[in-house]
Amino acid sequence: MNSQAQPDWPKLMEEVTAQFPRTLAYLAKPREKMTVPICPYCNNPSELVTGEVIYPGLWHLRKKQLYRCAPCSAWVGCHDGTTTPLGRLAKPNLRRAKMRAHAAFDPLWRKKFGWTETRFPDRRSAYKWLSEQLGITSAECHIGMFDVDMCMRVVEVCQGPDMTKDRKSKT
Ligand SMILES: [Zn+2]
Fold first, then answer.
1. Cα(66) to centroid of ligand 1, in Å?
2. What is the reported pLDDT for 5?
3. Are 87 and 144 in contact (CB under 8 A)?
């Protein structure tokens, strides 16, 4: 009776240890459901909201999905039709910086109406060039994940003398 009441500690530890790799494997398994991104400013989880909340009155943006941290006024949009964030949550100054970076960089590869040629044939080669300019790997090269300084560097390299030369001669 007495021996039964006393747990067999070594055996119990062995069982727990044996379970451990399975527990770790379970935790490491990618979740089907996207977890909400953590706000980089306050470290609290963000919330998924629609464009109606972020852009009240802008009818065409009402169905957009975004992650927001209300106390920080920080948000980030999602890839179209998904709940996958485009990058990190950003406050107004960083959002402006990211927009400037995209405005400087995207025309180098994105074909627009009336433009017959772009500086780079496709998005991939443009990003490859950008990562080389910034001295980072192409895996790290996502404007959505950049901070303000990095965005400013994007603008700088995209407006470098040999980058604007080609485009100006065409217009
Ligand atoms: Zn926050």
1. 14
2. 72
3. yes
Q: Which residues 6+ apart lie within 8 Å of 70 measured at CB?
A: 47
Residue 64 CA to residue 147 CA, distance in Å, equals 23
Tell me the per-residue pLDDT of 109-149, one tens digit each, with 9 for 90 and over: 988 776 668 889 889 999 999 999 999 999 999 999 999 99
Residue 84 CA, ligand 1 centroid: distance in Å: 18
For the beta carbon of residue 86, count every other beta carbon within 10 angstroms: 18
What is the whole-number distance in angstroms between the Cα of residue 136 and the centre of ligand 1?
A: 27
From the CA of 56, how far away is ligand 1's center (Å)? 21
Domain residue spans of the chain:
33-89, 92-164
